[in-house]
Amino acid sequence: GENVEQHPSTLSVQEGDSAVIKCTYSDSASNYFPWYKQELGKGPQLIIDIRSNVGEKKDQRIAVTLNKTAKHFSLHITETQPEDSAVYFCAASTDKLIFGTGTRLQVFP
Amino acid sequence: DAMVIQNPRYQVTQFGKPVTLSCSQTLNHNVMYWYQQKSSQAPKLLFHYYDKDFNNEADTPDNFQSRRPNTSFCFLDIRSPGLGDAAMYLCATSRGFREQYFGPGTRLTVT
Predict the structure, then answer these.
(1) Please, which residues bridge with residue B102 across strands?
(2) Partners of residue B24 on adjacent β-strands
């Protein structure tokens, strides 16, 4: 079955810097790759997603890239702000979501 | 606003005492999911309903059951909670196997 690896497990950046989180997946049939942000005590919030027919997608300060050949996808957050601090999960899917292990991002003022 | 609602947000139950968690949605999505999330871990899918069809994950314990009386509501029943069942329980919905939207979760404590 599908397996998703996510790195790093923790990431600390200064406000205004960029943050990059990387995921790899194993099932070449996966065709949908969402990213979720989860704040303490809340449910995961879908922040951006990409499908396998697209290589890059951007939404304001957030972008996701997908390399299907290498089975890699990444989340890029530019101009980070303290409110970006949360746990971020990547996932890969054909039908059900298979989550990565999560990255705790801390943005220091 | 269309949304996924979970009640209660916090639930305390005694060891072995049955408990029911509820989820409702105003998105009119046909798929509803229940996930278990333990501290510092990713959500783990327990089961989902695709319309009225129930789909159980192979490693979901028999202690966990679900009911979906209509499109909008879905319930998670834990028949005999153990200490290891203490977790955040997340409901999610989607239209077909597309984007999943999560509720705020119910934090279950077992005493």
Answers:
(1) B92
(2) B5, B73
pLDDT digits (tens, 9 = 90+) for B52-95: 999 999 999 999 999 999 999 999 999 999 999 999 999 999 99
Sorting pLDDT into bands at 50, 70 and 90, what band is B104?
Answer: very high
Backbone angles phi, psi at A84, to 5 degrees: -80, -10
Contacts of A32 in chain B (CB under 8 A): 98
Give the confidence band of B2 by pLDDT, cuts at 50, 70, 90: low
| Encoded amino acid at B20, one letter | T
Rounded to whole angstroms, the Cα distance separating A26 from B48 reads 23
> A80 with A107: CB under 8 angstroms?
yes
Joined tokens for residue A58: 């951007």
Name the residue among A41, A42, A100 with its Cβ closest to that of B42.
A100
| CB of A96 less than 8 A from some CB of B | yes
Q: Which of B45, B98, B103 sits opposite A43 (nearest CB)?
A: B103
φ/ψ of residue B34, rounded to 5: -120, 130
Name residues of chain A where pLDDT drops below 70. Answer: none
Supply B59's token pair.
Answer: 């490693």
CA pair distance A106, A47, nearest whole angstrom: 17
